[in-house]
Amino acid sequence: MLEHLILGAGFAFAAVLQPGPLQAFLLTRAVRAGWKRTLPAAFSPVLSDVPIALLVLLVLGRLPSSGQQVLQAAGGVLLLCLAWASVRQLRSTAALPQPAPDSAPRTLLQATAVNLLNPNPYLGWAFVLGPAAITAWRQSPVLAVALVTAFYGVMVAGLALFIFAASTARLLPPRARRTLVLLSAILLAALGVHLLVASVRAISAA
User: Fold this and answer.
1) pTM for the full model?
2) What domain range is 99 assigned to?
């Protein structure tokens, strides 16, 4: 149980810290309208990921176990690539996305639409969450539910904190931002290695 909770929560924490379209939009909206009006948008990943998750799980469910393990190994490589991208980002003091002046979601539905057009949820479910959830489900449905719940619980809470911090117009200083990015990179690398090792062991035992 603990392993699945850590995987779900860790991946969500790293995802919140990774700059992307949703973070940029939330930042702009929070600065302009304040955290109270923007806070509901923190739940947008829950809404946008439902069709993505169903589609990915439907496809993955038709794959043999070996194919799912290969995808999980690819997910480990993807996380390592994201970790390397985060390390390269340390050269910049702007670890958090800067606001886009002409693009900010004004409602929860608009934020959901932004995330639907964001490739990150598709990659995350196809290569990380999807294979991990199916593997956990085969062990026990409770483990799969724990994994997904931990991911979205930390994701929503992290985005809510991000919105609140952005609305105060007192974002963290450059050194603190760089520390968060480094922490995200380490976490992504650790999760990537874990998925790779687990996949190799499963394929070898098959």
Assistant:
1) 0.72
2) 2-205
Q: Which of 71, 83, 78, 80 is nearest to 199 (CA)?
A: 71
Q: Has residue 141 got a pLDDT over 90?
A: yes
Helix 108-116 and helix 44-61, axial crossing angle in degrees, nearest 10 = 30
Count other Cβ atoms within 10 Å, centred on residue 71: 21
> Checking phi first, is residue 42 left (phi over 0); if not, alpha (psi -120 to 50) or beta?
alpha
Give the tokens for residue 92: 């910049």
**Other CB atoms closer than 10 Å to residue 26's CB: what's the count?**
29
What type of residue is 77?
V
What is the per-residue pLDDT for 102? 38
Q: How many CA atoms lie within 13 Å of 89's alpha carbon, on the beta-carbon side? A: 25
Specify the amino acid at residue 131.
P
Cα separations in angstroms, 115 against 44, 49, 119, 177: 7, 8, 8, 23
Going by C-alpha positions, the residue among 122, 128, 150, 107 that lies closest to residue 54 is: 122
Backbone angles phi, psi at 149, to 5 degrees: -65, -40
H or E element: which one contains 150?
Answer: helix 141-167
Q: Name the domain count of the chain.
A: 1
* Surface-to-core class of residue 204, CB atoms within 10 Å of its CB (0-12 exposed, 13-18 middle, 19+ buried): exposed
Cα(1)–Cα(140) distance, integer angstroms: 10
